[in-house]
Amino acid sequence: MDLRTLGRTGVQVSPLCLGAMMFGEWGNADHDESIRIIHRALDAGINFVDTADVYSRGESEEIVGKALAGSRRDRVVLATKVHGTMGDDPNQQGNSRRWIVQEVDNSLRRLGTDWIDLYQIHRPEPDTDIDETLGALTDLVREGKVRYIGSSTFPAEAIVEAQWVAERRGRERFVCEQPPYSMLVRGVEADVLPVCERYGMGVIPWSPLASGWLSGRYRKGRDLPESRRAQRLPHRYDMSRPENQRKLEAADALGRLAEEAGMTLIEMALAFVIEHPAVTAAIIGPRTMEHLESQLGAVDVKLPPELLDRIDEIVPPGTNFSRADAGWQPPALASAWRRRRSARGREG
Questions:
Q1: Could you give the C-alpha distances from 60 to 20, 74, 107, 154, in angstroms and in order?
Q2: Beta strands of the chain (E only): which ranges?
Q3: Which of 317, 228, 234, 212 is nearest to 275 (CA)?
Q4: Which residues are identified as catalytic?
Q5: Is-above-0.90 flag for pTM?
Q6: In the predicted model, what is the mean pLDDT of the chain?
Q7: Would you tell me which CATH number, out of the four given (3.30.460.10, 1.10.150.20, 3.20.20.150, 3.20.20.100), belongs to the domain 4-347?
Protein backbone atom coordinates (compact mmCIF):
# COMPACT_ATOMS: atom_id res chain seq x y z
CA MET A 1 0.00 0.00 0.00
CA ASP A 2 1.11 3.55 -0.70
CA LEU A 3 1.77 5.24 2.63
CA ARG A 4 0.58 8.65 3.82
CA THR A 5 2.02 11.08 6.35
CA LEU A 6 0.08 11.34 9.62
CA GLY A 7 -0.49 15.08 9.90
CA ARG A 8 2.86 16.86 10.26
CA THR A 9 4.50 14.09 12.30
CA GLY A 10 6.56 12.57 9.51
CA VAL A 11 5.18 9.14 10.49
CA GLN A 12 4.13 7.09 7.47
CA VAL A 13 0.94 5.04 7.75
CA SER A 14 -1.20 2.93 5.42
CA PRO A 15 -4.45 4.45 4.05
CA LEU A 16 -6.35 1.69 5.85
CA CYS A 17 -5.99 1.45 9.62
CA LEU A 18 -6.95 -1.82 11.30
CA GLY A 19 -9.47 -1.07 14.04
CA ALA A 20 -9.59 -3.64 16.83
CA MET A 21 -12.98 -2.89 18.41
CA MET A 22 -14.42 -6.21 17.20
CA PHE A 23 -11.66 -8.34 18.75
CA GLY A 24 -12.86 -9.70 22.08
CA GLU A 25 -16.23 -10.03 23.77
CA TRP A 26 -17.83 -7.24 21.73
CA GLY A 27 -17.26 -9.15 18.49
CA ASN A 28 -14.91 -12.08 17.92
CA ALA A 29 -14.12 -13.79 21.22
CA ASP A 30 -11.76 -16.28 19.56
CA HIS A 31 -8.32 -14.84 20.33
CA ASP A 32 -6.47 -17.09 17.89
CA GLU A 33 -8.75 -16.15 15.00
CA SER A 34 -8.51 -12.46 15.88
CA ILE A 35 -4.72 -12.73 15.86
CA ARG A 36 -4.80 -14.40 12.43
CA ILE A 37 -6.91 -11.49 11.14
CA ILE A 38 -4.40 -8.98 12.50
CA HIS A 39 -1.49 -10.87 10.94
CA ARG A 40 -3.28 -11.04 7.58
CA ALA A 41 -3.84 -7.27 7.68
CA LEU A 42 -0.14 -6.68 8.39
CA ASP A 43 0.88 -9.04 5.59
CA ALA A 44 -1.41 -7.09 3.23
CA GLY A 45 0.52 -3.89 3.93
CA ILE A 46 -1.43 -2.31 6.79
CA ASN A 47 1.02 -0.86 9.33
CA PHE A 48 -1.46 1.12 11.45
CA VAL A 49 -3.51 -0.52 14.24
CA ASP A 50 -6.03 1.29 16.45
CA THR A 51 -7.71 0.03 19.59
CA ALA A 52 -8.97 1.43 22.93
CA ASP A 53 -8.91 0.45 26.57
CA VAL A 54 -12.71 0.33 26.71
CA TYR A 55 -13.10 -2.19 23.87
CA SER A 56 -14.30 -5.31 25.69
CA ARG A 57 -12.85 -3.81 28.89
CA GLY A 58 -9.21 -4.27 27.86
CA GLU A 59 -9.59 -7.59 26.03
CA SER A 60 -9.04 -5.99 22.63
CA GLU A 61 -5.76 -4.46 23.80
CA GLU A 62 -4.67 -7.86 25.13
CA ILE A 63 -5.38 -9.53 21.77
CA VAL A 64 -3.52 -6.81 19.88
CA GLY A 65 -0.60 -7.16 22.27
CA LYS A 66 -0.37 -10.90 21.63
CA ALA A 67 -0.62 -10.39 17.87
CA LEU A 68 2.22 -7.84 17.83
CA ALA A 69 4.57 -9.71 20.17
CA GLY A 70 8.15 -9.87 18.95
CA SER A 71 9.46 -8.13 15.85
CA ARG A 72 6.01 -7.16 14.53
CA ARG A 73 5.67 -4.46 17.19
CA ASP A 74 8.51 -2.38 15.76
CA ARG A 75 6.90 -2.28 12.32
CA VAL A 76 3.46 -1.14 13.49
CA VAL A 77 2.18 2.33 14.35
CA LEU A 78 0.12 1.39 17.40
CA ALA A 79 -2.73 3.61 18.61
CA THR A 80 -5.06 3.28 21.57
CA LYS A 81 -7.46 5.50 23.46
CA VAL A 82 -8.47 6.50 26.99
CA HIS A 83 -11.70 7.98 28.41
CA GLY A 84 -14.32 5.20 28.57
CA THR A 85 -15.60 3.59 31.75
CA MET A 86 -13.28 0.81 32.93
CA GLY A 87 -14.79 0.00 36.34
CA ASP A 88 -17.38 0.81 38.98
CA ASP A 89 -15.26 3.53 40.57
CA PRO A 90 -16.39 6.89 39.15
CA ASN A 91 -12.73 7.89 38.74
CA GLN A 92 -12.01 4.93 36.45
CA GLN A 93 -12.98 6.95 33.41
CA GLY A 94 -12.68 10.38 31.85
CA ASN A 95 -9.95 12.82 30.90
CA SER A 96 -8.50 13.76 34.28
CA ARG A 97 -4.78 13.66 35.02
CA ARG A 98 -5.46 11.14 37.77
CA TRP A 99 -7.08 8.64 35.40
CA ILE A 100 -4.87 9.16 32.35
CA VAL A 101 -1.65 8.63 34.32
CA GLN A 102 -3.07 5.45 35.87
CA GLU A 103 -4.71 4.01 32.77
CA VAL A 104 -1.79 4.46 30.37
CA ASP A 105 0.18 1.94 32.44
CA ASN A 106 -2.73 -0.49 32.26
CA SER A 107 -2.85 -0.12 28.47
CA LEU A 108 0.92 -0.59 28.17
CA ARG A 109 0.68 -3.78 30.21
CA ARG A 110 -2.24 -5.17 28.19
CA LEU A 111 -0.55 -4.28 24.90
CA GLY A 112 2.73 -5.82 26.04
CA THR A 113 4.75 -2.82 24.90
CA ASP A 114 6.94 -0.10 26.40
CA TRP A 115 5.43 2.71 24.35
CA ILE A 116 2.25 3.75 22.54
CA ASP A 117 2.76 5.51 19.21
CA LEU A 118 -0.54 7.42 19.31
CA TYR A 119 -2.49 7.93 22.54
CA GLN A 120 -5.91 9.46 21.94
CA ILE A 121 -8.60 11.00 24.12
CA HIS A 122 -11.63 8.92 23.13
CA ARG A 123 -14.26 11.62 23.70
CA PRO A 124 -14.25 15.26 24.87
CA GLU A 125 -15.17 16.00 28.47
CA PRO A 126 -16.21 19.66 28.93
CA ASP A 127 -16.15 19.44 32.73
CA THR A 128 -12.42 18.63 32.70
CA ASP A 129 -10.06 21.48 31.83
CA ILE A 130 -8.40 20.63 28.51
CA ASP A 131 -5.16 22.05 29.94
CA GLU A 132 -5.21 19.37 32.64
CA THR A 133 -5.67 16.67 30.00
CA LEU A 134 -2.96 18.05 27.72
CA GLY A 135 -0.63 18.52 30.68
CA ALA A 136 -0.96 14.86 31.67
CA LEU A 137 -0.46 13.73 28.07
CA THR A 138 2.59 15.99 27.70
CA ASP A 139 4.17 14.36 30.73
CA LEU A 140 3.60 10.93 29.19
CA VAL A 141 5.34 12.02 25.99
CA ARG A 142 8.30 13.35 27.95
CA GLU A 143 8.48 10.12 29.95
CA GLY A 144 8.66 8.12 26.71
CA LYS A 145 5.46 6.17 27.33
CA VAL A 146 3.69 7.91 24.44
CA ARG A 147 5.06 9.25 21.15
CA TYR A 148 2.12 11.37 19.90
CA ILE A 149 -1.31 12.38 21.17
CA GLY A 150 -4.64 12.76 19.40
CA SER A 151 -8.36 13.28 19.90
CA SER A 152 -11.42 11.31 18.87
CA THR A 153 -14.91 12.59 18.08
CA PHE A 154 -14.10 16.14 19.16
CA PRO A 155 -16.28 18.91 17.70
CA ALA A 156 -14.48 21.57 15.71
CA GLU A 157 -14.54 24.14 18.52
CA ALA A 158 -12.93 21.68 20.95
CA ILE A 159 -10.21 20.89 18.42
CA VAL A 160 -9.43 24.60 18.06
CA GLU A 161 -9.45 25.13 21.83
CA ALA A 162 -7.01 22.25 22.33
CA GLN A 163 -4.65 23.67 19.71
CA TRP A 164 -4.72 27.12 21.30
CA VAL A 165 -4.18 25.78 24.81
CA ALA A 166 -1.26 23.65 23.63
CA GLU A 167 0.40 26.67 22.03
CA ARG A 168 -0.17 29.07 24.93
CA ARG A 169 0.69 26.64 27.71
CA GLY A 170 3.59 24.88 26.03
CA ARG A 171 1.82 21.51 25.86
CA GLU A 172 2.10 18.71 23.34
CA ARG A 173 -0.60 19.20 20.73
CA PHE A 174 -3.06 16.78 19.23
CA VAL A 175 -1.55 15.64 15.93
CA CYS A 176 -4.72 13.98 14.63
CA GLU A 177 -8.47 13.63 15.08
CA GLN A 178 -10.58 10.48 14.77
CA PRO A 179 -14.13 11.47 13.71
CA PRO A 180 -17.10 9.48 12.41
CA TYR A 181 -17.13 9.83 8.61
CA SER A 182 -18.75 7.93 5.77
CA MET A 183 -20.99 8.43 2.75
CA LEU A 184 -23.95 8.41 5.17
CA VAL A 185 -22.34 10.47 7.95
CA ARG A 186 -20.90 13.60 6.36
CA GLY A 187 -21.40 16.25 9.01
CA VAL A 188 -17.67 16.60 9.69
CA GLU A 189 -17.12 17.87 6.15
CA ALA A 190 -18.58 21.21 7.21
CA ASP A 191 -16.22 21.96 10.08
CA VAL A 192 -14.05 19.21 11.59
CA LEU A 193 -12.22 18.25 8.41
CA PRO A 194 -11.45 21.86 7.35
CA VAL A 195 -10.24 22.65 10.90
CA CYS A 196 -7.93 19.63 10.86
CA GLU A 197 -6.49 20.73 7.52
CA ARG A 198 -6.01 24.25 8.89
CA TYR A 199 -3.96 22.94 11.83
CA GLY A 200 -2.07 20.29 9.90
CA MET A 201 -3.72 17.44 11.78
CA GLY A 202 -4.11 13.95 10.42
CA VAL A 203 -7.62 12.49 10.22
CA ILE A 204 -8.37 8.80 10.81
CA PRO A 205 -12.15 8.38 10.47
CA TRP A 206 -14.00 5.63 12.32
CA SER A 207 -16.98 3.71 10.95
CA PRO A 208 -16.43 4.39 7.23
CA LEU A 209 -19.12 1.75 6.61
CA ALA A 210 -21.57 3.73 8.77
CA SER A 211 -21.93 1.04 11.44
CA GLY A 212 -22.76 -1.58 8.84
CA TRP A 213 -25.26 0.46 6.82
CA LEU A 214 -22.79 0.47 3.90
CA SER A 215 -21.88 -3.23 4.12
CA GLY A 216 -24.32 -4.05 1.31
CA ARG A 217 -26.67 -5.88 3.66
CA TYR A 218 -29.09 -2.98 4.15
CA ARG A 219 -31.21 -2.86 1.00
CA LYS A 220 -34.86 -2.07 0.36
CA GLY A 221 -37.09 -5.10 0.07
CA ARG A 222 -34.81 -7.32 2.13
CA ASP A 223 -35.07 -8.46 5.73
CA LEU A 224 -32.85 -6.31 7.91
CA PRO A 225 -29.76 -8.19 9.14
CA GLU A 226 -29.20 -8.96 12.78
CA SER A 227 -25.98 -7.81 14.41
CA ARG A 228 -24.47 -7.32 17.84
CA ARG A 229 -24.17 -3.63 17.12
CA ALA A 230 -27.91 -3.41 16.50
CA GLN A 231 -28.53 -5.23 19.79
CA ARG A 232 -26.35 -2.74 21.69
CA LEU A 233 -27.69 0.36 19.91
CA PRO A 234 -31.22 -0.53 18.76
CA HIS A 235 -32.30 3.07 18.16
CA ARG A 236 -29.81 3.37 15.30
CA TYR A 237 -31.52 0.55 13.42
CA ASP A 238 -35.15 1.02 14.47
CA MET A 239 -36.98 1.37 11.16
CA SER A 240 -39.92 3.12 12.82
CA ARG A 241 -37.66 6.15 13.09
CA PRO A 242 -37.86 8.47 10.05
CA GLU A 243 -34.11 9.13 10.05
CA ASN A 244 -33.40 5.41 9.73
CA GLN A 245 -35.89 5.10 6.88
CA ARG A 246 -34.03 7.90 5.09
CA LYS A 247 -30.75 6.16 5.79
CA LEU A 248 -32.06 2.93 4.27
CA GLU A 249 -33.21 4.80 1.17
CA ALA A 250 -29.75 6.34 0.79
CA ALA A 251 -27.92 3.07 1.46
CA ASP A 252 -30.02 1.33 -1.19
CA ALA A 253 -29.35 4.08 -3.74
CA LEU A 254 -25.62 3.97 -2.99
CA GLY A 255 -25.66 0.19 -3.36
CA ARG A 256 -27.24 0.46 -6.80
CA LEU A 257 -24.69 3.11 -7.75
CA ALA A 258 -21.80 0.86 -6.73
CA GLU A 259 -23.23 -1.99 -8.81
CA GLU A 260 -23.47 0.29 -11.84
CA ALA A 261 -19.83 1.29 -11.30
CA GLY A 262 -18.70 -2.35 -11.14
CA MET A 263 -17.57 -2.40 -7.53
CA THR A 264 -18.90 -3.47 -4.16
CA LEU A 265 -20.56 -0.96 -1.89
CA ILE A 266 -17.84 -1.65 0.69
CA GLU A 267 -15.13 -0.73 -1.79
CA MET A 268 -16.93 2.43 -2.85
CA ALA A 269 -17.55 3.46 0.76
CA LEU A 270 -13.92 3.06 1.83
CA ALA A 271 -12.57 4.64 -1.36
CA PHE A 272 -14.88 7.62 -0.78
CA VAL A 273 -13.51 8.25 2.71
CA ILE A 274 -9.82 8.01 1.80
CA GLU A 275 -10.45 10.24 -1.24
CA HIS A 276 -11.05 13.28 0.97
CA PRO A 277 -7.84 15.39 1.03
CA ALA A 278 -8.01 15.81 4.82
CA VAL A 279 -8.17 12.07 5.50
CA THR A 280 -5.03 10.12 6.32
CA ALA A 281 -6.46 6.63 6.85
CA ALA A 282 -9.88 5.03 7.20
CA ILE A 283 -10.33 2.72 10.18
CA ILE A 284 -11.73 -0.65 9.17
CA GLY A 285 -13.14 -2.88 11.92
CA PRO A 286 -13.44 -6.47 10.70
CA ARG A 287 -14.84 -9.17 12.97
CA THR A 288 -14.00 -12.04 10.63
CA MET A 289 -11.40 -12.84 8.00
CA GLU A 290 -14.13 -12.54 5.36
CA HIS A 291 -14.85 -9.00 6.52
CA LEU A 292 -11.17 -8.08 6.23
CA GLU A 293 -10.75 -9.57 2.76
CA SER A 294 -13.80 -7.66 1.51
CA GLN A 295 -12.21 -4.37 2.56
CA LEU A 296 -8.56 -4.68 1.58
CA GLY A 297 -9.20 -4.08 -2.12
CA ALA A 298 -10.56 -0.60 -1.52
CA VAL A 299 -7.07 0.93 -1.59
CA ASP A 300 -6.89 0.15 -5.31
CA VAL A 301 -10.25 1.74 -6.13
CA LYS A 302 -10.28 5.25 -7.59
CA LEU A 303 -13.60 7.06 -7.77
CA PRO A 304 -13.98 9.30 -10.85
CA PRO A 305 -15.39 12.82 -10.39
CA GLU A 306 -18.71 11.95 -12.01
CA LEU A 307 -19.24 9.10 -9.54
CA LEU A 308 -18.39 11.36 -6.61
CA ASP A 309 -20.93 13.87 -7.97
CA ARG A 310 -23.63 11.19 -7.96
CA ILE A 311 -22.78 10.27 -4.37
CA ASP A 312 -23.20 13.95 -3.48
CA GLU A 313 -26.65 13.91 -5.09
CA ILE A 314 -27.74 10.98 -2.92
CA VAL A 315 -26.24 12.33 0.31
CA PRO A 316 -25.36 16.03 0.04
CA PRO A 317 -22.01 17.16 1.52
CA GLY A 318 -22.16 17.92 5.23
CA THR A 319 -25.27 15.79 5.82
CA ASN A 320 -25.97 13.72 8.95
CA PHE A 321 -29.27 11.85 9.07
CA SER A 322 -29.48 11.99 12.86
CA ARG A 323 -27.72 13.63 15.79
CA ALA A 324 -26.65 10.19 17.01
CA ASP A 325 -24.46 9.82 13.93
CA ALA A 326 -22.15 12.51 15.29
CA GLY A 327 -20.93 9.97 17.84
CA TRP A 328 -21.08 12.38 20.78
CA GLN A 329 -23.89 14.32 22.38
CA PRO A 330 -22.88 17.77 23.66
CA PRO A 331 -23.80 18.05 27.35
CA ALA A 332 -25.44 21.39 26.62
CA LEU A 333 -28.07 19.51 24.59
CA ALA A 334 -28.27 16.35 26.68
CA SER A 335 -28.88 17.95 30.08
CA ALA A 336 -31.79 20.23 30.92
CA TRP A 337 -29.72 21.47 33.88
CA ARG A 338 -27.40 23.22 31.42
CA ARG A 339 -30.25 24.95 29.59
CA ARG A 340 -32.65 25.98 32.36
CA ARG A 341 -32.09 28.41 35.20
CA SER A 342 -35.02 26.91 37.09
CA ALA A 343 -33.41 23.45 37.03
CA ARG A 344 -30.19 24.85 38.45
CA GLY A 345 -32.09 26.62 41.18
CA ARG A 346 -33.81 23.43 42.32
CA GLU A 347 -30.54 21.50 42.45
CA GLY A 348 -28.58 24.36 44.05
A1: 6, 19, 10, 23
A2: 4-5, 12-13, 16-19, 48-50, 77-82, 116-121, 146-152, 174-178, 202-203, 282-284
A3: 317
A4: 55
A5: yes
A6: 94
A7: 3.20.20.100
